[in-house]
């Protein structure tokens, strides 16, 4: 089993990436092969809304998105980790999801059979101590997973993480992320 972890935070080695690392360790503990992708390190341009993808389900924009989609296609599981910025996912993650419009076209307009089914999990971090701030992020990831035929199995919300290294000192959060990866690998 291959599990891809996508870190959507523009801040390297912060809370959401730390929790993703522990989820991937959990997946490896059950025999999964894992790969971590640092989304902000990739060249992913925003969707231009040209509708060019409506005919063949292909995007004309040249960047790292096709290579990323190949990795996701080959994976059996996907874990996305993102902090909440202004009540939603990061701009980097939203740009990646927007660029999946050709996959939406393939599935819903061209009626092509999609790729193999996958399992998915979402780890989301907020400095606030309430779960209200996760709603928008979860909805966007849910739609993304549906388009890519990813069975949304697990979501974990981590509140009250303000400073860059807060997650490293929170054993219960690290264990929660570890269990998420472990469960995904077992699914």
Walk me through this protein's architecture:
Helices cover 40% and strands 19% of the residues. With 187 residues, the chain is of the alpha/beta class. The protein has one domain (2-186): Flavodoxin domain (Rossmann fold), CATH 3.40.50.360. Strands 2-1-3-4-5 form a 5-stranded parallel β-sheet, sandwiched between helices. Strand 4, helix 6 (135-147) and strand 5 form a beta-alpha-beta unit. Helix 1 (15-29) crosses helix 7.
Give a quick set of tags describing it:
Rossmann fold, 187 residues, alpha/beta, 19% strand
**Number of beta strands:** 5
Provide the gyration radius in Å: 16 Å
Write the CATH architecture name: 3-Layer(aba) Sandwich
Distance between the termini: 10 Å
State which percent range the strand residues make up.
Answer: 15-25%
Low-confidence stretches: none
Could you say what the CATH topology is called? Answer: Rossmann fold
Name the strands of the widest sheet in spatial order. 2-1-3-4-5
């Amino acid at each position: 089993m291959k599990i891809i972890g996508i870190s959507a935070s523009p801040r390297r080695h912060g809370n959401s990436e730390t929790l993703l690392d522990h989820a991937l360790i959990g997946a490896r503990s059950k025999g999964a092969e894992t790969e971590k992708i640092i989304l902000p390190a990739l060249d992913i341009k925003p969707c231009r809304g040209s509708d060019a993808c409506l005919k063949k389900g292909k995007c004309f924009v040249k960047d790292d998105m096709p290579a990323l989609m190949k990795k996701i296609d080959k994976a059996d599981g996907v874990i996305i980790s993102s902090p909440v910025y202004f009540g939603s996912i990061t701009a980097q993650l939203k740009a990646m999801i927007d660029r999946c419009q050709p996959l939406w076209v393939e599935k819903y307009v061209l009626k092509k059979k999609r790729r193999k089914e996958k399992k998915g999990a979402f780890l989301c971090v907020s400095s606030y101590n309430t779960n209200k701030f996760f709603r928008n992020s979860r909805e966007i990831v849910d739609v993304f997973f549906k388009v890519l035929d990813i069975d949304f199995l697990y979501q974990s919300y981590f509140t009250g993480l303000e400073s860059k290294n807060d997650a490293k000192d929170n054993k219960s959060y690290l264990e929660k992320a570890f269990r998420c990866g472990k469960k995904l690998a077992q699914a």
